[in-house]
Design brief:
519 residues, 10% strand, binds 2,4-dinitrophenyl-2-deoxy-2-fluoro-beta-D-cellobioside
């Protein structure tokens, strides 16, 4: 009943948004109030209207449908065929397809359309839609946000960019309140701020010229049959014979969403371009392993077997992300890795990545290190020498913490993750410092985009990074092998995993990355 009521209210608001003529003043918008200017400007521009009773209800929480609809109008995004009869379904579908948000954030089935939108999600949608090239420096911007730790990782980029470009300012206490709601009045100030910034923007630069990449040669090199078991010597990954080796390849996207790109044909396609590594990203949260263990585990096994069939090295990645502290599910991780390590104990192909990206309030000493000890012990019971990859706090960027207090054991490496549009010289310096302290580094995930998977692509910055890794013999895996409409994806939307991929099937990112598998 309650739900139905909310639906009707949402529908009425929707009608009022579309049907009523633009109105410049509302009887509940007090002259001289802090939001009067913003509300009036947007009303005069026809982007918002009030309710049939002449009110605007400035203090009411804005819903997902209202927020997206207004953003779409400001961005000039036309509605497409919606999945339900909800008044906002067309705009919601278009916004989803444009990549402004993901389907787990606002499911297209509509049950959350009429609910208040969280501030962090609102800011992400706003920035994706209206200021996609904006970025913010981590140190400068995060220092402005007192409750920065409360932010979910996937919103971090957008919020930093919004602060840096002046779209968002904290409240009087310096908090952003990422999970809180946004009032309609506050939303108007955001829309007004971003509108002003947009009109001052220079025109967008010309796109980068596309890379020329030879079609696949179909002579595979550097695979498992040639190199055998891996071993870590000093800081260097080596093959069974003790010669240095750099593995290069692709990471899947979340296999609960894009499992079709872990098929034998998809992996063979990637190997045909010269890759000798594949990473199976098994999300634990976000509808992944923890919510459907048997189904997701079956996908992992199928993907690993497909990589083995293609003579590739393959990483089994326990892809923590929204579950930022690996200790939260340490027992599940131990059981999972024990089972995988038993299954693949005689297979030189498999590497184990025990915690993708710890983030939020986690420490190396108190959380990640003790977690790693338990996960490593479980793997070592079954598989005495497979290479194990260990993450670190701040989305696997805090290798300096690991370097100061590394784990005991053989064939361990530490992951460094970077996104070329976000991370640069400072993080490279961390790599050199860590190597100097004897810490073996493995880049099990990097992207040509910003850290949120979109923006850019940043090919110049990516080239600097890959040259740096090549000079140091560091292995890497690129995010990601899928056709999602985001710049980090290697394949164009709609490309079939079962066809042979030609250059025109690859995105700008894909063409660049595939050209770097072989030196
Ligand atoms: C990592 C994650 C990976 C994430 C990429 C890009 O997250 F390991 O799961 O992938 O980097 O952000 C993205 C996908 C999106 C998807 C989203 C949520 O590309 O399609 O919607 O995951 O599942 C990082 C890495 C670094 C930082 C932040 C994140 N960082 N993050 O430095 O702030 O927020 O997810």
């Amino acid at each position: 009943m309650q739900k139905f009521f909310k639906f009707v209210v949402a529908a009425v608001i929707g009608l009022s948004l579309t049907v009523l003529p633009a109105q410049a003043s509302f009887r509940d918008v007090a002259p001289g109030s802090w939001y009067e200017g913003a509300v009036t400007e947007l009303a005069q521009a026809g982007a918002i209207t009030g309710y049939p009773d002449g009110t605007f209800r400035p203090n009411q929480a804005i819903t997902a449908a209202e927020f997206v609809t207004i953003t779409a109008r400001l961005a000039g995004l036309s509605p497409t065929q919606g999945q339900t009869a909800h008044w906002a379904a067309g705009h919601m579908q278009a916004a989803l397809e444009a990549g402004w948000y993901d389907w787990d954030e606002i499911p297209p089935t509509g049950e959350r359309f009429g609910q208040p939108i969280a501030r962090q999600l609102a800011v992400k949608i706003l920035m994706n839609a209206l200021l996609p090239s904006a970025r913010g420096d981590y140190n400068t911007e995060s220092a402005k946000i007192k409750d920065f730790a409360a932010l979910d990782g996937r919103y971090y980029e957008a919020v930093l960019a919004a602060y840096a470009s002046g779209v968002v300012h904290g409240d009087n206490n310096g908090n952003f309140l990422p999970l809180g709601t946004l009032t309609r009045a506050e939303a108007c100030t955001l829309f007004r701020n971003i509108g002003r910034i947009q009109t001052n923007q220079p025109s967008t630069p010309a796109p980068e010229p596309s890379q020329t990449v030879p079609e696949p040669v179909r002579t595979r090199q550097g695979g498992v049959s040639e190199n055998g078991w891996l071993q870590v010597v000093g800081t260097q990954l080596c093959n069974e014979a003790g010669s240095p080796i750099a593995l290069r390849g692709m990471s899947s996207h979340g296999i609960q969403w894009y499992g079709q790109f872990t098929s034998s044909k998809a992996i063979a396609n990637t190997a045909d371009y010269g890759a000798n590594l594949f990473r199976v990203a098994m999300y634990t949260g976000e509808g992944g392993y923890l919510s459907q263990p048997e189904a997701v585990k079956a996908k992992v096994i199928a993907a690993v077997d497909a990589a083995i069939e293609n003579d590739l090295y393959v990483i089994i990645d326990w892809h923590i992300l929204s579950d930022g502290n690996p200790m939260a599910h340490v027992n599940e991780a131990v059981a999972f890795f024990r089972e995988m390590a038993r299954r693949y104990q005689d297979t030189p192909n498999v590497l184990y990545e025990i915690c993708n990206e710890p983030n939020g309030n986690v420490s190396w000493i108190g959380d990640v290190r003790p977690y790693a000890q338990r996960a490593i012990a479980a793997i070592r019971e079954q598989s005495p020498k497979a290479v194990i990859l260990v993450g670190s706090p701040t989305w696997s960027q805090d290798i300096h913490l690991a370097a100061a207090d590394p784990l005991e054991g053989e064939n361990l490496m530490y992951t460094l993750h970077f996104y070329a549009g976000t991370h640069g010289a400072n993080l490279r310096q961390r790599v050199d410092d860590a190597l100097a302290r004897g810490l073996p580094i493995f880049v099990s995930e990097w992207g040509t985009s910003r850290a949120d998977g979109s923006g850019g692509v940043f090919l110049e910055e990516s080239k600097v990074w890959l040259d740096f890794l090549d000079e140091r013999g560091i292995s890497w895996c690129n995010w990601s092998l899928c056709d999602k409409n985001e710049t980090s994806a290697a394949l164009r939307p709609g490309v079939s995993p079962e066809s042979s991929w030609r250059q025109e099937d690859l995105t700008e990112s894909g063409r660049f990355v595939f050209s770097r598998f072989t030196p």
